[in-house]
Amino acid sequence: MDTRPLEEIGLTKGEIAVYLSLLEVGSSTVGPIIDKAKVSSSKIYDILERLIDKGLVSYVIKENRKYFKAANPRRILEYLKEKEQNIKYQEKNIEQILPSLLQKQKLIEKKQEINIYEGIKGVKTAHEKTLHELKKGEEFYFMGVSILSTEKFKGYWQEYHKRREKAGIATKVLFNRNVSRKELDNRNKFKFCKAKYMPFEFNTPSWIEVFKETTIIGVPSEQPIALEIKNKEVAESFKSYFEGLWSQEVTVLKGIEEIKKNFWRMLDELKEGDEYYVLGATWLGTTDKMPEFPIEFHTERQRRKIKVKFLFVSGAEKIIQKNKELFTLFGEVKFLPSSIYEGIQINIYNNKVAFNIWREKEPIVMIIEDQKVYKTFKTYFDNLWNQDTYVLKGIDAIQNLFEEILEAGHCDWIGARGYFIDKRPEYIDDWEKRAIKKGFTFRNIVDKEVKGHRITKFPFAKTKYTIPIEFSSLSAFWIYGEKVVISNWMEKEPFVLVINNKNFHNLYKQQFELLWNKNKF
Asked: pTM of the predicted model, to two decimals?
């Protein structure tokens, strides 16, 4: 295939090689991409990141591994239209090779459960599927549209609705109440579009769109993200939720004292042995300190033997460790990835969903009593709860892992080079004292250049220098408890993939023992 048209629209040779390889191999981990594309392992992540930014590649966590997939080649046309120079010439060239690209993808395309799209272009790619996958007369649903999403994508929405209108595809849109009336009226001017406000004063942190068996959850931040879920049950649940909201009446309570009263009412509605679910759990909106009320509340909950599952926001780990019994007696605790549900706690119980919104001036709670809405959020909660793979970012996430391995009592590392130890020496001073007192131990297989580093000098450390630096400089593997953690320091802030799966842990444990007993890599 002549790849010059792809070079002329701005793709590098490396990007072209990786994208074409993904079209041929389908959903793939990094290894096969490197082999097929003939690119350096040191450059592959940078190339994939650029392709993700352009909306040409997405990735998914499948079978506890990160898989990359080429976007539908039609995305190249959308990318091409955004180029300001030689637009007609470039579009003609892409159209010439498009059938060949589509044919390559069609031969190996497999259904995926989850795709993640990053950046403005990636989010647009996800949304464009409403035009590619729906036919004339079909309808999709869009809720939680915020000021940020309308401002950031303003020009795009106008152009998109013209194309949607021409295609005869219908939509219903629920705007947040902070969006101007002018914006809402604008949508209602388009054919086959009905728009109105959410039935309550609730500025959702994300939008949700549903069509066929697909649900897309978008976060319009500075670096927007769209999470695509292909699951019939989830899509039907959110469709039911949308239909409920389209004519929903809710109870709204204002002020911290009203929120506390509603917590006690929830407890009174539940019986011994009943269970409720908390999504985005905090302590009245905080993660670094615990007020008296949660202590009082959960002490009484335990006395009544009412069970709970918590999905705490990231950052609450330290407080949980200090007050473990308060939450694990008749309770189970897991954590959400960073920046998810901060500022909102959702309690799911007894056919009700209570949204606790921790506004600085005046927190509010909104209670929806509706079986369909309850089932929607329970389904959503269950999907998050049963997800054994999640991503964390930042140096604080690494520090929390050090607390976790201390609690586990032992950790095996592959490729740990001591980056965090260099970043936070004072914390490590304290951590080392506690590790010695607890009887903590670790083993580390690393390259020879780490010899003499503090990570090799702990009295409880055992180290072997049997792997090449080309391996250990990429990622570190943590094997402890029932987890496998992969940390990567190649970006500005550390990136952590956590896999909480006993079978996966046992597999990596066996692999570690094989490496540990080898004198050479």
From this structure: 0.46
